[in-house]
Amino acid sequence: MLKLNCILVLLAISFPASSALGNKDSSVSLEATRKCAEQIQERMLAITMRDWMLLDTIGRRFIEACSGAYDRPDIAKAYGVVAAANNEMGHYKEALDQAEAGIEADYLEASSHLEKVKALFALSSTSEAIEAFAVADYVIHLAIKLNDAQIAAAKTDGERELYVEETNAHGIECMILEEYRLLLGLK
After folding, report:
1. What is the domain count for the chain?
2. Which CATH number goes with the domain that contains 65?
3. How much is the pLDDT for 3?
4. Longest CA span, the chain
5. Which residues of 113-143 are buried (b: 16+ CB within 10 A; e: fewer)?
6. Is residue 20's pLDDT more than 50?
7. How far is residue 104's CA from residue 83's CA, in Å, rounded to a whole number?
8. Are 15 and 40 a contacting pair, CB within 8 Å?
9. Range of the domain at 178
């Protein structure tokens, strides 16, 4: 069940929360934006195929090539995807490094906090995992509250749908985090 939930979260977090067009400097070409969007599609395919090595490669390429075309939250999501791929491959130290980079890119990107908990638990760093759990729990629930406010304020159905999908992804992250609550012996 945990693996299925992980895959669902990866699917949910793979797409950026915002469109690249208009978010950054107008000097970013449409071609660069198109290439970055293609990489997001490649990420989805790698997740579907459960090809963690490919997902790691695509995620890193997105971070490197698309930092000028996408906002920090979108780059942080890519770090979360790379961290998840490394957790799946058993490269827990690398997963932890990528999760921390995602947190640094955007503190409120919940996926990186969840991946940090998973990596710390796998590395048998129980006290650090417990601390990271408390932060992840707070950030995920805050993200849900913020998305709920965005849903209420949405001006279009498309915008509303985007925030509903984000809220659903955070709900899955909550379920996974609850499994770690039990594994860490927390009440």
Report:
1. 1
2. 1.25.40.10
3. 53
4. 51
5. bbbbbbbbbbeeeeebbbebbeebbebbeeb
6. no
7. 13
8. yes
9. 2-183
- The rounded distance, in Å, linking the Cα atoms of 115 and 92 is 10
Sorting pLDDT into bands at 50, 70 and 90, what band is 11?
Answer: very low
Tell me the mean pLDDT in the region 161-181.
94
What string of H, E and C letters represents the secondary structure of the chain? CHHHHHHHHHHHHCCCCCCCCCCCCCCCCHHHHHHHHHHHHHHHHHHHHCCHHHHHHHHHHHHHHHCCCCCHHHHHHHHHHHHHHHHHHCCHHHHHHHHHHHHHHCCCCHHHHHHHHHHHHHCCCHHHHHHHHHHHHHHHHHHHHHHHHHHHHCCCHHHHHHHHHHHHHHHHHHHHHHHHHHHCCCC
133-147 pLDDT, tens digit each: 999 999 999 999 999
Q: What is the pLDDT averaged over residues 4-8? A: 48
